[in-house]
């Protein structure tokens, strides 16, 4: 069955966030730390497709190296060659799916936590295709996959202890130092501690603005000048009072598909 990668792109809810924190025995700040480092705060592209990264070395392994010679950009024993992020990753995925759909879906990292498709079975999915369909539904499912991965591999202890080196090694793999994931996690957690945690309503509004072609700046659940300008632009378009604030009428309008 074909997979429709565009869905509603439902933003993270309080229930989804609380369920992940409860499962892992952490506070919300630890959850947001991982989200901020893995996807810069949002699990969807502006076109409502989940954020992905196609890993050519994973595809080579999953497909038994059958395509290494003719398609080295898609299938290669060496990591790298990612190309442009965002929508361009779907072009790579679709090309790989034409070669071996199962291996291609297993070779992408998905959503808020960028969990690899080849972990689908450990997370309770029948296969990577079922996992991909779940990732399309919304960020609650994406965060559930992230929490499931952390729980399945027993690395929540390092997250709770703020042992960013061991957490990064387990979560991101042995090459974590090259990308300084441990330092990024530490910096993100400290930044969250200095300020406020993302407001879910405002964050959902920011995501809704991106779906409508507007730029609210970082998806961080904080009211900044860019978010205010984007809200005013949306309000003008929707015939609402141009307050630049997330009032009830604006929130309701953004929640409509």
Description:
The chain has 257 residues and is mainly alpha-helical. Among the domains are: 14-51 and 111-194; 200-255, no CATH class. It has helices at residues 14-24, 28-39, 56-62, 88-99, 101-106, 128-137, 139-152, 156-161, 164-172, 181-194, 200-211, 225-238, 248-255; strands spanning 52-54, 108-110, 115-116. A 3-stranded antiparallel sheet has the order 1-2-3. Helix 2 packs across helix 10 (181-194). The longest helix is centred in the middle third of the chain and has 14 residues, at 139-152. It is globular.
What tags apply to this protein structure?
257 residues, mainly alpha, 3-stranded antiparallel beta sheet, 13 helices, 3 strands
Q: How is the quaternary structure best described? A: single chain
Helix content: 40-55%
Judged by helices, strands and strand pairing, the structural class is: mainly alpha
Strand order of the largest sheet: 1-2-3
Total beta strands:
3
Main beta sheet: strand number and arrangement?
A: 3 strands, antiparallel
Low-confidence stretches: none
What's the short version?
It contains 13 helices and three strands; from the N terminus they run ααβαααββαααααααα. The chain is mainly α.
